[in-house]
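Deviations from the work plan: none for this task. Representative record:
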Amino acid sequence: MEVSDWDLVQKCQAGETSAFQELVSRYQQKIFMVVLGLLRDREASMDVAQEAFFRAYRKIKGFKGGSSFYTWLYRIAVNMAIDAQRRQKRNPLDFRENMDGVLEEQNEVEKDPFSNAHDKELRAGLIAAINDLTVEHKAVIILRTVEGLPYKDIGEILGCSEGTVMSRLHYARKKLQVKLKAFL
Amino acid sequence: MSLPGKRVTRALLSSSILFFFAAFAGAAETTSQIVQVKIGAILASNQGDEFDSRLAHLKKQLEPLKYRSYRLLKEESQKVQRKGNATFDIPGGRSLVVTPQESGTKQLALRVHLQQGGKPLIDTTVRLNSGGNFLLGGPPHEGGALVISISATAQ
Amino acid sequence: MIKRCEDIRDRIGAWMDGELSRSGAEEVRVHLESCPACCEERRQLEKLQASLKAVLVAGPSNVSFERFWSGVEQRINRQRVWHEDFFGWVRDLSTPPQLAWLVPAVIILVLMGMFSLESFFPGSRLAVRRNNFAAVESIDGFGRNVAVLRENETKTTIIWLYQNQEGENESTGEKSDASPSF
């Protein structure tokens, strides 16, 4: 039987680094994907994701289990990704290209959902439209789409109400829909 | 509220609290025991164009009087205990008695009595900010007019 | 009807996410059965959602997590030097939202600077201007003409004793060469 997150957290709090390693292996990919969705830069995302785990490790003694471990971890990672994105914006580097490159690679997966020309155009338009979303809208879209998290958990991660999550998702989708009208 | 939005609110809230705390702390009025009263007796006239360099800090304040020449005749500073008074000899056989009425650290009320040869010329009460000044002028002197700058600072 | 459709369309996304209450979800479902326009909206949103999943969910093919833990472990084991944490803290402080503290902080500093200017530069013009508010509460000229003026630029209060019409000072006999023309 799989050890629960909370049990691993308690072991970490008792000083067992191996328990933390187990938590990292459980969530590393999810955290990376969320950070990547926000930052659009693979190297930076890897760095931020690792740093988020390190920060979680340093704070884990203060984690009382008031929320689930993953929402707590996501909150740390999303906060750091948002901060990192702000710093990115001040740097004159073209991260968008990096993301486009990353997303191009995603096309290499076996079941390519964008196999025809029309869908490829839709994908290109979608990437551009996601890039143009505000960080708040991008965060809800990613947490909902990538992780399939319920609104309650998204609210906990982003520090807002479920109603705000609902409204933000609605407007984010509306924006994407308007920009991709020709393809939908 | 969004995460960044929440942070902005937190940051604004905490800094506003800090700001208001600082403002209130700054505005807190405490009673001052000693007041430093400083006077400058100035001869304002239209004889010549001299502007006494020692009056540089008062130049803008004296300009509206439209005299051509200003000369500092006397400058004196006295410390006055609360409820005490300071007497200054003013050129032309005059004397100026300044009595702090109320003295906080920010604002003061001064009773100012100018007399000449035992005869009162003016008796006035002026409320001013600590460190501020006002001008009392008009009495003729040496072909011009006497202007007295009176400033007070709570200590 | 248009308003009803608008209301339903606002909730289709949440309905698809299974985040509406039972009655709210039922309301949307019933409406969709009878409204082709809202059905089209639903179709578009479903396609959008599928496309988003396809773009965002599939991980980049060549990302390896083999060295992920070692990166975290290195951070854990590395003895952080104080200036790294300090500069990290300063860098965090200087990002836009946190920067909000700067606005009131600057105001406080400017105000503090102005209020303490007098102690640094006694008699400075700025300090004089700041301090120059003075209100005359009572005045007795003992029968002489008295004018109280307030000069706007320097905020200076001026109390002026006017000589008698003959131009003679009753006590000294001195004659003033000019009356102020303010």
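Chain A is about 75% helix and 0% strand.
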